[in-house]
Write a structure and sequence with these properties.
The protein is α/β, with parallel strands linked by helices and 199 residues long. The chain has one domain: NADH:ubiquinone oxidoreductase Nqo5 subunit (Beta Polymerase, domain 2). The strands form three sheets. It has a five-stranded mixed β-sheet.
């Protein structure tokens, strides 16, 4: 472990202490997991504490651990993962938090802490159905307003439910059940007679 990672590990343990449920140092990166109850407070400390100073949110995304690595997953299903950057100290951190309820996944919004979380939280809501409590404008961002379900969930049908298209006769957008025929595509290989200098 480099001196910078050692300094970050010490600072995390000093400032956050028992709020850290799990800490992993792997491949030159530090990942900490906190509980949903401590998530918003931890985020605020990570941003405001001068010893850590994670001023910038690089990314926030949802993860569905259902059938993780095609094996049964023991534990909570939905997770939110943040990638943070401290410009002052030039170090990075991955922060993970699992939603306490698999049937209705929800955690507090960190949009008031890092403004960049706004659209990232909307995307995680749209794709995974994770509710970010306190978000001022939590609505779909990638799918259509009438879309049913959350397409990045492991139990979402691969072909979806309905397809949307413009009907020139009705002069409007219509929805109809998806009709996809499965087919096997076999590549056609053509070789010249003297291909590669072989006779």
């Amino acid at each position: 472990m480099t001196q910078k990672l050692q300094a970050l590990t010490a600072a995390l343990e000093n400032v956050l202490g028992e709020r850290i449920v799990k800490q992993v140092n792997a491949r030159g990166e530090i990942t900490i997991t906190v509980s949903a109850e401590d998530y918003q407070t931890t985020a605020l400390v990570l941003q405001e504490d001068h010893e850590l100073a994670f001023e910038q949110l690089i990314d926030l995304c949802g993860v569905d651990y259902g059938a993780y690595k095609d094996e049964p997953w023991e534990g909570l299903r939905y997770c939110v993962v943040l990638h943070l950057l401290s410009i002052r100290h030039n170090w990075r951190l991955r922060l993970k938090v699992f939603c306490a309820d698999n049937d209705f996944p929800r955690i507090p919004s960190v949009n008031t802490i890092w403004g960049a979380a706004n659209w990232f939280e909307r995307e995680a809501f749209d794709m995974y159905g994770i509710i970010f409590e306190g978000h001022e404008d939590l609505r779909r961002i990638l799918t259509d307003y009438g879309f049913i379900g959350h397409p990045m969930r492991k139990d979402f049908p691969v072909t979806g439910h309905v397809e949307m298209r413009y009907d020139p006769e009705q002069k409007r957008v219509i929805y109809q059940p998806v009709s996809i025929e499965t087919r096997e595509i076999t590549p056609r290989i053509i070789r010249e007679d003297n291909y590669g200098g072989l006779h």
